[in-house]
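Need tokens for this chain, all 333 residues.
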Amino acid sequence: MAQQKEPVLVTGGSGYLGAHVVARLLRDGYAVRTTVRSPERAAEVREAVAEDGDLEFVAAELGSDEGWVEAVAGCAYVLHVASPFPAVPPERDEDVIVPARDGALRVLRAARDAGVRRVVLTSSFAAVGYGRKPGNTYDETDWTDPAADNSAYIRSKAIAERAAWDFVREGGPELTVINPTGIFGPLLVPRVSASPGHVKAMLDGDLPVAPPYWFGVVDVRDVADLHVRAMTEPAAAGERFLASGERAVSFLEIARVLARRLGERAARVPTRELTLEEVRANPALKDVELRYGRVPVISTAKARKVFGWQPRDVETTIVDTAESLARWGLLTD
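Here are the structure tokens for all 333 residues:
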């Protein structure tokens, strides 16, 4: 095992990305503390990361001040990965926006008060690329307008990230922000998060027709890698970094990858896309309608230059997602 390095706090270690970040840090020899919503999650995380090393747990939630002083105490770095994600569209936009913004500020405030050196915040491409732009080409200089006609979740990511930058400008720890596109790849814990849930829905036959929507795909292992690199790289201070694969894909293209690579196991994946009229008839597909016909071109040149970062190819990531869902027994027979 590598010589132990400075202690790191990872928020949301029982989550999809959080578990991968914890596992990577332990492999790299860091002492890791992670927040969980309840102590019962600790055993699950230990089993998931399958790494020997210095790992401890603190119960803390983004909606409460309780536990955060203990969580950040003695840590040199904080990787703020945890973020609320609505399972269904909220009744009020504020039900998503307020927890995302206030949770990020709560973590940053605790980090500042504890003398943490740097916070790496997981934001999203949602904070970058949900505005109309000629050519639909996006890089880290772009911002989604929080007042634009987007879903509550997309607005929450832009609002929370802007609030974080405003906070550190007034005096706080160094801040680096990672803006991933749709995160796919193998699961370390037996719960299906948002993006892998799309693959599960296709394989289970719960998504019989594909939404006509193009988006970036990035592997969860590569996003974890980028967080750890961003934690200590001097050139990353005060910067944001897009994380995505080589090109955008559509739901229908993902379905075709599954059919080609999995054969009979993918017999229920969709074979056609919804029409624009069908999209307009479903209020839950508001974001799909707003971006109909738009294929984003997402630049990751900055991450590649600063970190030498090389993401996996999209097809490998999609297939690894499906195989992981099967191993966990999460697919419908």
